[in-house]
Amino acid sequence: YPTWKRTLTRRAREAQMKRFCKAQAIQRRLEEIEVTFRELEQKGIKLEKLLRDEEGSPAAQKTQWMNKLLYLVQKKNSLMSEESDLMIAVQELKLEEQQWQLDQKLRCYMNREESLKTPEDRAAEQKILVQLLEVVNKRNVLIHIQEEKRLSEL
């Protein structure tokens, strides 16, 4: 194995591990968001019951409960936005992995001597190239969606 092949293999493994670790971190955060959603939902239910049941409560108390309820809704919306961003990141990681795999297959075909390639090899190479372009276009769409979301939040 020449040095450059070992280097490429090592870098590919490192990139794959980095994607794996990022996917795990995203999964953990999604689980945390789910737990927080449930907690916010329970708090919201309690506040709604207080607002409906306590007709003799002072106006200041009702205002305080209403403000807490609005804060919970705002927090929930913020978490939903974060969850949406994480789901896009998951899709991006999947496409990144798919692109890497297709790139590896394409390199195998491209490294063969042109005179030794069969028509089936050329067709497979073209098919992989088309798939690779589709993946790149999907990643581009995700980036465009993220950019639109970022601009709309500003």
Automatic annotation (TrEMBL):
Single GO term (MF): monooxygenase activity
InterPro entries, alphabetized: bMERB_dom, F-actin_Monoox_Mical
Entry keyword Disulfide bond: no
Record's keyword annotation contains S-adenosyl-L-methionine: no
Residue ranges that the Swiss-Prot or TrEMBL entry lists as coiled coil: 23-50
A matching Pfam family: bMERB_dom
Compartment(s) of residence: Membrane
BMERB domain span: 13-154
Alphabetical keyword list: Coiled coil, Membrane, Monooxygenase, Oxidoreductase
Protein name according to UniProt: MICA1 monooxygenase
